[in-house]
Amino acid sequence: IKNHLRHFNFLLSSFVNYFTTKNLTKGLESVIKEAEPIAEETGRTRFHYGFYAAMKVEYDLVKAPVTYEQEKELGEEPIRLDFLIIKKEKNVKLNDPIGKFFKRVNLFEYKSPEDGLTIDDFYKAQGYGLIYKGFDKKVNELPIEEITLTFVRHSYPRDLIKLLKITGFNIIET
């Protein structure tokens, strides 16, 4: 995850530099004019519209075979954690088979006997953890090292474990 975030930050700064130095005036101005009434109505500048416009103009100019989606909803329902355990005291150790792995915040993803556990489920649950972490009131109030994610399932996910090992994850089986 950390390497992906570093790559994202690099891409973001590259986009900003590229779009502020490139001449995109004609198409950019027309799309931004469409966004102005929304900004006036809400009282907020919607910088996403400018970014969207710049991306659209750039790829329209080169006739790239792409489609655009702005402010895409990522699900039909609100994102919910299946279960969450927060330790009341940071340094308390629990000695039960599950609790011995607990850190300060412990997220659980439960899979019923009918559910599978795929690589997409694995990444989606990681996303839940990152979203939970991102809602801190103060920056890094909850360090990522103080979060665990536990999958609960009726059977061993052989295919997932095999794929994670191939992808370079260090799997410790107990």
Which of globular, elongated, flat, extended, rod-shaped describes the shape? extended
Helix content: 40-55%
Cα gyration radius (Å): 22 Å
**What kind of oligomer do you see?**
single chain
Distance between the termini: 24 Å
Tally of DSSP β-strands: 3
Which structural class should the secondary elements be placed in?
mainly alpha
Number of helices: 5
- If you average the pLDDT, what whole number results? 77
Low-confidence stretches: 1-24
Largest sheet, order of strands side by side? 1-2-3
| Helix-strand topology string | HHHEEHEH
Largest sheet: 3 strands, mixed
Strand portion: 5-15%
Structure description:
The structure is a single chain. The chain is mainly alpha-helical and 174 residues long. It is built from five helices and three strands. The chain has helices at residues 2-21, 25-42, 47-61, 119-134, 158-166, and strands at 83-86, 105-110, 147-152. A three-stranded mixed sheet has the order 1-2-3, with helices on one face. Helix 2 (25-42) runs antiparallel to helix 3 (47-61). It is extended, with a radius of gyration of 22 Å.
List keywords for this structure.
single chain; 174 residues; mainly alpha; 3-stranded mixed sheet; 3 strands; 45% helix
Short overview:
By secondary structure, the protein is mainly alpha-helical. The protein has helices at residues 2-21, 25-42, 47-61, 119-134, 158-166, and strands at residues 83-86, 105-110, 147-152. It is built from five helices and three strands.
